[in-house]
Design brief:
Elements lengths: L8 E6 L6 H13 L7 E5 L6 H5 L7 H16 L5 H10 L1 H8 E3 L4 E4 L10 H14 L5 E5 L5 H4 L5 E9 L3 H16 L4 E12 L3 H11 L2 E7 L2 H9 L11 H13 L3
Parallel strand pairs: 1-5, 1-6, 2-4, 2-5, 6-7, 7-8
Antiparallel strand pairs: 3-4
Helix pairs in contact: 1-11, 5-6
Bound molecules: adenosine-5'-triphosphate and magnesium ion (MG).
Amino acid sequence: MTDKLAGKRMVAVSGKGGTGKTVSIAMMARALIENPSTGKLLLIDADPACGLLCALGIEARRTMGQVREEIIKTARSRDNKEPDSDAVKKLINDKLDYLSFEALIEMDDFAVLAMGRTETMGCYCPVNSLLRDAIKALSSGFDTILIDGEAGLEQVNRQVVKKLSTLMVISDPTSRGIETAAAIKQLVEVDDAMAVDRLGLVFNRVRGAEDVLESRADELGMDLFGMIPFDEAIAEFDLVGRPITELPAEAPSLSAYRKVIEDYVLA
Ligand SMILES: Nc1ncnc2c1ncn2[C@@H]1O[C@H](COP(=O)(O)OP(=O)(O)OP(=O)(O)O)[C@@H](O)[C@H]1O
Ligand SMILES: [Mg+2]
């Protein structure tokens, strides 16, 4: 069987809550769009609590979760009974291409897919399995795929994506951020939760103490992919709800992300 993901750049971010995962995806997208080696770019908002679309200033038409609900509703009224979980699985599988393309938002320079929430079950598991399916259905049309994940270890733990070219753990300059990074490293490298070609750490919102952060990364045994300075403009844009992607081209945080993508995404 040929590996559909061979030759693709599949990049995900992970890390403690609020460290800047969503901002990082938006900024990397901005940097990737400027670079012709990116090819076709797909961004996936895999955090059930939406965020990436707002950071990009895009309104979701329908999320994968919503299209999934509609498919189930149609089957329910057609058959006049609640489909069981095997029936739901088959339905979704049969309509996967429709489902993914229906939820895909195509912009001039990239496409975005929002997973959203699934309402029928009180847990996120269906979202995670939808994410797996969406990647299967859409990956052949894209060269570079960035995934904005939920906070914590859940998606790494559940092996939502089995194979990544790059996993970036985003940490703020705090012990808790670094401890989460250590736990993610353990999951990937010791517990084999995911096959990752390149695993590394990005310190975000850095305001000095770079040498301390470098030695913390060293102690962890993690590659330090980059340090992104605290950028007042990011905080301001976020405050007024202006898309992060409209930051000025010379923003120092954007230059730092440009270097990260050149060295660890496109290289
Ligand atoms: N380099 C930066 N400089 C200044 N502020 C930043 C920077 N990066 C992120 N922020 C701010 O930090 C906050 C959290 O960012 P973001 O929403 O990207 O985190 P997250 O990791 O995606 O959070 P969650 O875990 O809730 O999904 C936001 O208010 C954002 O504006
Ligand atoms: Mg987020």
